[in-house]
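Service request form, structural biology core

Requester: graduate student, group of Dr. S.
Request type: structure prediction, single chain
Budget code: on file
Notes: please return the result as structure tokens.

Sequence provided:
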Amino acid sequence: MEPVQQVAAEQVAAFRRFNRYFTRRIGALDDRFLGQDRPLGEARLLFEIGDGVSLRTLRGRLGLDAGYLSRMAKSLEAQGMVRISVHPDDNRLRMVEPTPAGRVELREQNRRADVLTADLLTGLDARQRAELTEAMATARRLLRLAAITVERVDGAAPDARACLEAYAADLTARFGSFTASDLVGPEEVSGATGAFFVAYEEGRAVGCGGLRTLEPGVGELKHVWVHPDARRLGLARRLLEQLEGAAAERGLNLLRLDTNASLTEARAMYRACGYPEIPAYVDHVYADHWFEKRLTPSAPLR
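Core staff response, request fulfilled:
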């Protein structure tokens, strides 16, 4: 588990103050959101249903309680906005799709939302609108990162192996011949010999990284990977911090890693995180650059 960090009271207050202001400005408190005959929750659910989706997918996407989601979906069904059915190939899955009336309502909802947004931005000049747009993109990126959890798992766990398979597929696409046999074995990154971390966003594994012991006091980072959908959030650095913490717990005072010349983003990150480049310490077919970092030891692992 990641360490709990103290959050300043003024930061909490500022966040809540912004939430109160924003929800009022967009009309989220009105039970007739955008002037239509439904509150924000049902309007958002209709938007997320799109052309059709399973209730299971909606639960994961929106983080809603199953009972609450079911009640909202049934309310939309009673209003003639959606149809709920059983998936033809899996009777455990309930599907929801818009009716023709629901599609008309969604088009009107989108039109009204666009008008409301344009009205809100009219009071700003072009420079201020660009500044606000950039600030919102930053806020979204940081909020996504804040919601991602990083968990230590066994190297043989299904999510660990699924991430490594995705990592191998990524590298194969980059330089053509990386295979599963080039991945670390579960025993190398588990128990007393190492550690493996998986990052989760809304229940979905979106990143990983492994640590194995090379020799007394020396560890090696392996397969730090982030799903394309979760890149540029700062997640790779968080994984790196977790791996460094696990190394320090094990009394490792030196971390090494290798990477391929085509992985320019990874090389830039390692340099920025205090890993100077060193001569080759291992002969590996895909390795073109080698790095290391000295750690400050922490309390031993119990």
